[in-house]
Amino acid sequence: MKDYIGFLREELAAHQALFTQLEALLPQISEVGQALRDCLARGGKILLMGNGGSAADSQHIAAEIVGRYKKERRGLPAIALTTDTSIITSVGNDYGYEFIFSRQVEALCSPLDAVIGITTSGNSINVVRAIEVAKEIGATTIGLTGGTGGKLAALCDYNLVMPSNVTARIQEAHIFIGHSVCDILEAD
Ligand SMILES: O=C(CO)[C@@H](O)[C@H](O)[C@H](O)[C@H](O)COP(=O)(O)O
Ligand SMILES: [Zn+2]
């Protein structure tokens, strides 16, 4: 019987190498956590978006914030812009897929808010457009990307660029960051 252990060992080694490099990003992760605390303290909310696995990450992080991560506390305001299939299909159908997030930012975002775009390439056009609209509104903008950071890197107030070109590895690091900022949001 064929086994996959050699392959898995390589995947694990690549994951571990990336996580070792995350040490260098801890100051930036801390800053983003503080920016999100400031957003909530001034009465803002957190909007998140991404495609595919990053859509799942957006929902996962919003659920931690609205519900509970580790601590008993009041619910905090966060919305994943990836969940309303009526909005996504109508805006996608009537205006185009590239507008599915920007239209929601236009409708829901205030200058008090923070908007988090999650894209491993940094180039998903629907995320890029949404961040552009968030900037016009005056919200705090945060990009979680990989590789070179793509188009998003030039746009956001805070850019967390994972030092990898492999989508799966970048996503694994993104969810570590999502959990880390939840830790910071729940800190005393
Ligand atoms: O989860 C994965 C791959 O691990 C995929 O669903 C992946 O998220 C999709 O291909 C996305 O469309 C990639 O978009 P992006 O990360 O470049 O913005
Ligand atoms: Zn994935």
Protein topology:
Blueprint: H1 5-21, H2 26-41, E1 46-50, H3 53-66, E2 78-80, H4 85-94, H5 102-108, E3 114-118, H6 125-137, E4 140-146, E5 158-162, H7 167-186
Parallel strand pairs: 1-2, 1-3, 3-4, 4-5
The chain binds D-altro-hept-2-ulose 7-phosphate and zinc ion (ZN).
CATH superfamily: Glucose-6-phosphate isomerase like protein, domain 1
Q: Using DSSP, what is the number of strands?
A: 5
Q: What is the beta-strand fraction? A: 5-15%
What are the secondary-structure elements, in order, as H or E? HHEHEHHEHEEH
Q: What's the end-to-end separation, in Å?
A: 53 Å
Biggest sheet, open or closed, and with what strands and sense?
5 strands, parallel
The CATH topology annotation reads as Rossmann fold
User: Level of helix content?
Assistant: 40-55%
Q: What would you say the CATH architecture is?
A: 3-Layer(aba) Sandwich
Quaternary status of these chains?
single chain
Binding site for substrate: 51-53, 64, 93-94, 119-121, 124, 171
Cofactor: Zn(2+)
GO molecular function: carbohydrate derivative binding; D-sedoheptulose 7-phosphate isomerase activity; zinc ion binding
Binding site for Zn(2+): 60, 64, 171, 179
